[in-house]
Amino acid sequence: MQQPNQNHTRAIVIIGILFFVFGFITWLNGTLIPFLKLACQLENDIQAFFVTSAFYMAYFFLAIPSSYILKRTGFKNGMALGLLVMAVGSIIFVPAANARNFALFLTGLFVQGMGLALLQTASNPYISIAGPIESAAKRISIMGICNKVAGMLSPLIVGALVLKNATAIEEQVLTTTNEVTKNQLLDQLAGRVITPYVIMTVMLVLLAIFIKWSSLPEIDVDKDEPTTATAGPAKTSVFQYSHLVLGVICLFLYVGVEVLAGDAIGAYGRELGMPLDETKYFTTFTLCAMLAGYIIGIIAIPKYISQQNALAVSAVLGLIFSVGVFVTSGYVAITFIALLGLANALMWPAIFPLAIKGLGRFTKIGSALLIMGIAGGAIVPLLYTSLKDKGITSNQTAFLLCTVPAYAYILYYALKGFAVGSQKKVMVEKSLHQDVVAN
Predict the structure, then answer these.
(1) Most distant CA atoms of the chain, gap in Å
(2) I need a surface site. Which of 121, 204, 259, 350 has the fewest CB within 10 A?
(3) Which residue from 424, 418, 425, 421 is spatially nearest to 136, judged by alpha carbons?
């Protein structure tokens, strides 16, 4: 495999900048959900959570096309293009705010997701294979710190701008009988997003130019032969790699519970009667816990614990904290949701390299399939809000039903699923060896 042959640190710094951008934009959704619910006068959380659906479904539709784009552009140019697409999505927020049009906001989010799909399809395998695969989780943990530090800052910065005195505004809107006054209040509120998103657009364009002309080395995996293929005929399809297929399901569920813990924590608090001026900061608590988890990963992987064992421990913690949310209430329950960030931290760093290990020339399409799994962030939170808002179950039960099965499957993948293809290979090679000895 062709590796960046000089300075890995340089590549890690550049990709780290990109992961900072991922985090800042992705974790704004937790702020946008209550903001758009108020500014666009949405009826319930089901409508508000279309914010996450529009954003994360872009990954599902654009991940595979992204792999074909990367075949033509290469990793570096693909990353620059992804940033430009994200800039287009960001500037759409300006007419959306002026018209206070929820559908246009969702369009901007979907376009941002398109750009991120391309960016993530390029950057995640890049950082995974820019060094020994056994230590990929450590490198991705470093990326995770960049991602989550940005994610911690974004609700604090943008939330302070767009949701300043949100509770008072909400009360004014509810009590005002004059429609003109009410619309003026809502128009002023919606207009608060214009300046942050214009600044974001400019920064994304500048970063795209920087990446385009940077010294980031290109990695060519198209000529590499897979290393985990079973004995016998060469693999002709990426779907023949069981550990990858199972990994896509695992990543789908992981992203679902990660988004639930980060973006739905505020909605959970609102359901418990907590004021908007408090709940707008809850996403930051989850991200603080994730940051702690990434630091643990950098120190421990692979020196003290393997990637798959770290994933297993994380899944067990997820199960414990999910039950904790169910059996408690108030700020204790919110604390358990925030602690899910600790459980979730090492999941992406472990799942991604385990799933693409040995794919060789199938790496780009395999990465694209995994990026499609990010659509879990669109489905699982929406399932949670549908269960509670339609009166099917209580708030606590809805959360439990969306988390426990997911963490149970992640535990299975950590213990057995990641090695399904490898186990088959070992069994075939052992059988062939026995035949040779017998003959």
Answers:
(1) 93
(2) 204
(3) 418
Query: DSSP letters along 280-305, please?
Result: TTHHHHHHHHHHHHHHHHHHHTTTTS
At residue 121, the pLDDT reads 81
Determine the length of the chain.
Answer: 439
Q: How many domains does the chain have?
A: 1
For residue 68, CA distances in Å to 64, 121, 351 come to 7, 10, 23
Per the CB < 8 A criterion, the answer to whether 280 and 270 are in contact is no
How many CB atoms neighbour CB 256 within 10 A?
A: 27
Torsion of CA 174, 180, 185, 187, to 10 degrees: 130
Note whether residue 227 is domain-resident.
Answer: no
Look at 11 and 304; give whichever has higher pLDDT: 304
Residue 387, domain member (yes or no): yes
In a domain, 19, yes or no: yes
Query: At 279, is the pLDDT very low, low, confident or very high (cuts 50, 70, 90)?
Result: confident
Token pair belonging to 428: 């075939």
The CA distance from 382 to 45, in Å, is 9
| Residue 246 pLDDT | 94
Predicted pLDDT of residue 5: 43
Q: What average pLDDT score do residues 332-352 get?
A: 93
Give the C-alpha separation, 187 to 254, whole Å.
Answer: 37
Decide: pTM greater than 0.90. no
Residue with tokens 């799909």: 117
With beta carbons less than 8 A apart as the criterion, state whether 361 and 241 touch: no
Residue 26 tokens read as 């992705």
CATH number of 283's domain: 1.20.1250.20
Identify whether 231 is part of a domain: no
Domain of residue 288, residue span:
8-215+239-438
Rounded Cα distance between 267 and 282, Å, is 10
Backbone φ and ψ for 357, nearest 5 degrees, come out as -60, 125
Contact 313, 300 (CB under 8 A): no
Q: Which has the higher per-residue pLDDT, 4 or 233?
A: 233
Q: Annotate 132-190 with DSSP letters as a single string.
A: -GGGHHHHHHHHHHHHHHHHHHHHHHHHHHHSTTHHHHHHHHHH---HHHHHHHHHHHH
Could you report how far apart the first and last alpha carbons of the chain are, in Å? 36
Kindly calculate the radius of gyration of the chain based on its CA atoms and give it in whole angstroms: 22
